[in-house]
Amino acid sequence: MARFRFRLDASLQIAQQFLESAQRKYALEMKRWQACLLAFEAQKGRYYEAQESQRDAGRYRPEELRICQVFALEQRRRLDQCEAIRKEQELVMDNARRCLLEAHREVEKYERLKEKQAAAFRVLELQKEQKILDETGQVLHWLGRISTVDKCVINGRANL
After folding, report:
1. Measured between alpha carbons, how far is residue 96 from residues 10, 24, 25, 80, 155 in Å?
2. Alpha-carbon distances of 75 from 20, 62, 112, rounded to whole Å
3. Each residue of 75-101: pLDDT tens digit?
4. Pairwise pLDDT comparison (11 vs 2), residue with the higher score
5. Are the CB atoms for 71 and 53 separated by under 8 Å?
6. 106 CB contacts (<8 Å, ≥6 apart)?
């Protein structure tokens, strides 16, 4: 029996390599996004602490109020910066996710095509095998019939 050979195997392998690369890139971007999220949360905590310090200074230490206001504004600026970086990283991560999905679809497309062609190949091979079996049976039938004719001729009977 002949072996099935997928003619687009090289394309399938390239698509699989691209998928692996997209998976690695997505994982990396996801880690970066998580790091941005952690940094944002930490900065938010520092900002809330600075606000609390500013409120306390306004109530109990008016001479430190200006320093606390400047510190709270700086923490707010950093929080806004972290927010912008986090949003930017979300866009990068979404782009990596889209690339990953596209690569996954491409691999699935080649795998479905390969399976479809393999199934068609198996059907053709089975049909060839069935044809050979049918021809062999027919030949054996005729050989058996000829053998019967030979026996009849030898025994003196010419009619079948």
Report:
1. 24, 10, 7, 24, 87
2. 40, 20, 54
3. 999 999 999 999 999 999 999 999 999
4. 11
5. yes
6. 15, 18, 19
Q: What radius of gyration do the chain's Cα atoms show?
A: 39
For residue 18, give the amino acid letter.
F
pTM of the predicted model, to two decimals? 0.70
In terms of residues, how long is the chain?
A: 160
Q: Which two tokens stand for residue 133?
A: 């079996």
pLDDT digits (tens, 9 = 90+) for 29-76: 999 999 999 999 999 999 999 999 999 988 888 888 899 999 999 999
Q: Residue ranges of the alpha helices (H) in 61-157?
A: 65-155
Q: Token pair for residue 6?
A: 């997928």
145-154: buried (b, 16+ CB within 10 Å) or exposed (e) per residue? eeeeeeeeee
What pLDDT does residue 140 have?
82
- 99 contacts 26 by C-beta, under 8 angstroms: yes
Residues 15 and 106 sit within 8 Å (Cβ to Cβ)? yes
31 touches 148 (CB < 8 A): no
Mean pLDDT over residues 111-127, rounded? Answer: 93
Task: Show the tokens assigned to 140.
Answer: 């054996």
Q: Which residues contact 65 (CB under 8 A, 6 or more apart)?
A: 54, 57, 58
